[in-house]
Amino acid sequence: MVVAAARIAHPYMRRVSSCLLRSIACASLLLGSACAAPPEQPAAPVAASPSTAGAVLKIDSGALQGAVDGDVVAYKNIPYAAPPVGNLRWHAPMPPASWTGVRDATRYGNDCMQNRMSWDKTASPQPVSEDCLYLNVWKPASAAAGGKLPVMVWIYGGGFVSGSATAPVTDGARLAARGVVLVSFNYRVGRFGFFAHPALSHEPGHGLLGNYGLMDQIAALKWVQRNIAAFGGDPSNVTIFGESAGGESVNYLMLADQARGLFAKAYSQSGGGRTPWPMLADDLPDRPSAETAGRKFADKFKIKDDDLAALRALPADKVLGSVNMINNENGSFSGPMIDGALVTMAVADGFAAGKQARVPYINGTNSNELGFLPGFMLHIASKKMAEQFKFDVDPMIAAYGSKDAFEDHFASDLTFVEPSHFLAAAASRVQPTYLLRFAYVTKANDKGQGAAHATDVPYSFGNLMATGDTIADVDRDQARLWGDYLVAFARNGVPKAGTTTWVPYTEKANQLNEFSADGLKPISADLPGLKAITQHFGTRS
């Protein structure tokens, strides 16, 4: 049944990710951007200081000392699971150890193992380690335990091979100052987070397999349910939100039975939805299984199919290898997979079948997702994708109105925009749904071409200066307005600021909400080319 569900998805979409990511990375380089719970462990008491006085609170694992910064208190490096090392490498997350005394929660901890791209100017400065399952909480200083504030839980992007909850651009202080409790967390990425091998599948009592990074996300959400009331947050009013791979994670969490009841609202930005993942153990004609990729990796070290101890004994740097957004090491890294238990089908198939959580939902894209690519590279990408995915180019050019329009928009529409519209249409039949196009561009960077991939993130968090761009007063004003919409959605499920309320998506009206220099306005979602792409998939919204 799982195999059948997987086959429904378009057989070529797997190649979108690798082709697209190679284009993104190359362009960026050219442009210069770049088992039982563990026993209790003692924690050294923390002496109070002017920045930490009064910031001690108790959670289920022990007491925490946070740091006061104006109207916000931050608690960082809180373990939400045991370190996934030794026999817990490639294992579902286990409960964290309790501690005695007061744990210092004033500084960030490790990021998860990854190869950072040298051009990423917003990357975290933290060291990487397998010991990385920590989260951070920001709350208003005035928030008291049981305060029932809305909770926002951020899931980072990075192609499931990189990313961090400690990047300056996603510091949660400014969002928390608006009257929410903000949570960010690390989850395993690369081979540490997404890996399959026969030795793991045959391990007695193995539980869930393969998608360890998604398991981490669910473990973090369960931690929120148990503990967020201590920070003044309402566990019954949790919004999950993420961008790119984080947005894709939001969509998969909406489909996961294991995540039901852990959140009340969801916002997916630039999360795609069409890309089918490989099966855990079954090879398909167009997709080798994750176990096939895992065997290929193990073969490099002459590790046999039944030697799990040897796999887990590999040094972390060997497991990491050179995997990043443009390198899957010749097919020896599968990425996320359809495991048959946590992930049972592609996102588009799940939403089309109405299997998603029935919660208020925003699905958005940016107005020019691939806008940072040089024009010639964008045109090449559109042509290559049309060839690879067996589109008849002439009808597509006709659908877009011109060859230039096709070359400018097809790659982005295929990867981001059409899936977003498809998911919004499917969701709108059974739950409040809002379709978004983020089109605001920082004034100093605005060349009239639209908002590129991930440029919405600093606006969501209000951390414009963390980008290194020149920031104008109008940019700050727009960031405040954008934040108002997000906080309103987190509060009551309706994005509203002042007298402006977003238009819910319906298939009949077919309108999206565009956020631009003119503020928020509804426009037609009947964009050139999208219907032709949907028809090509043969899966109707």
Q: In short, what is this structure?
A:
This is Carboxylic ester hydrolase. The chain is of the alpha/beta class.
Model description:
- This protein has helices spanning 2-8, 14-31, 173-176, 190-193, 198-201, 212-227, 245-255, 290-299, 308-313, 316-320, 347-352, 375-388, 393-400, 403-428, 457-461, 473-492, 530-537; strands at residues 41-42, 56-59, 62-65, 67-69, 72-79, 99-100, 102-104, 111-112, 128-129, 134-140, 149-155, 181-185, 233-243, 265-269, 361-366, 433-438, 496-497, 500-501, 511-516, 519-524.
- It has 541 residues and is an alpha/beta fold.
- It has one domain (2-34, 43-537): Alpha/Beta hydrolase fold, catalytic domain (Rossmann fold).
- An eleven-stranded mixed sheet has the order 4-5-10-12-11-13-14-15-16-19-20, with helices on both faces.
- Helix 12 crosses helix 14, helix 13 packs across helix 14 (403-428) and helix 14 packs across helix 17.
- The chain is globular.
- It starts with a helix and ends with a helix.
- The model is unreliable at 1-50 (pLDDT under 50).
